[in-house]
Amino acid sequence: MISVIIPCHNAARFVERAIRSVLVQSYKHIEIILVNNNSTDNTLQILERYAASYPGKVWVLDEKKPGAPAARNTGLKKARGEWIQYLDADDELMPSKLSHQFNITALHPEAGVIAGGCILNYYNTGNPEEIMRTVDHHIWRGLINSNLGITSSNLWNRAALNDAGGWDENITSSQEYDLLFRLLKNGVVIITDPGVNTIIHFSDNSISKSKDKEKIKRILDNRINFRIRIRTELKSIGMLTAELEECIDNYIYMEIMRNYFDVPAYAKVLLKKFPYRIPFHRAALLKSKMQVKRLRTRIRNYIIR
User: Fold this and answer.
1) 200: closest CA among 128, 299, 101?
2) Which domain range does residue 107 map to?
3) Residue 241 near residue 230, CB atoms below 8 Å
4) What is the pLDDT, as a whole number, of residue 278?
5) Same-domain pairing of 190 and 246
6) Per residue in 65-78, pLDDT tens?
7) Count of domains for the chain
8) C-beta separation of 172 from 70 below 8 A
9) What percent of the chain is modeled with pLDDT above 70?
């Protein structure tokens, strides 16, 4: 059985799309656990309607602690399936997603996570831009570059999640990568799935850049410190190759430059704080790529206003 866990916070506008995408899956041996998380709209009424329509298959739980990690952990405690499919309430699964990845688990009984790709769907003026995001077959490189699937595109083994302690409810960004890192340190095998069977929807609100400079600093710190933790782990287990060292340096440099114009003074401090081994021509190339990416984001945000 696969347990599908959907955290829901004020998701009345789109949660039915997510639920329907699960109900039409070609893989039928499922249960759906809907976790209401302090919703103030009519989300709870929608969830209860589905539970009444599918008794014994759809369950509604309540979690008062704010945040998706707490809601996911609540769902995990209720889950009966060997495998866990997390799905954010504003996203959706393609009809063969579960059967496709469940078949991969049969081919790889050692797997603890199936990491899959996704389609990033950005709303604009009636003509959404779609970006396909695949996974990196090199597990550690994928972890460093946040290219090892995301919460909804992956399939997770329940026992492995429980052994790792579930989701960390104290972090606010890159939660699935913190979890993947802990799973890897526990010896869990991650199998990459070249398929793309999940759609991640971004609205004008979800892609807007935060103007809270302190929040930007916290997220930046979290992402940099996470890569430092990866470097420490790789070094301790004798797997810190020159390629992975360069990946870590490149990621940190790119992340600082991506936020340079929002927190310039802090970015300058970070650039001095960390010893980067990036050749000048490489740094210039990364900087130019980042500027192009930033310009594209600004244009997209301008269009959807």
Assistant:
1) 128
2) 2-202
3) no
4) 59
5) no
6) 999 999 999 999 99
7) 2
8) no
9) 85
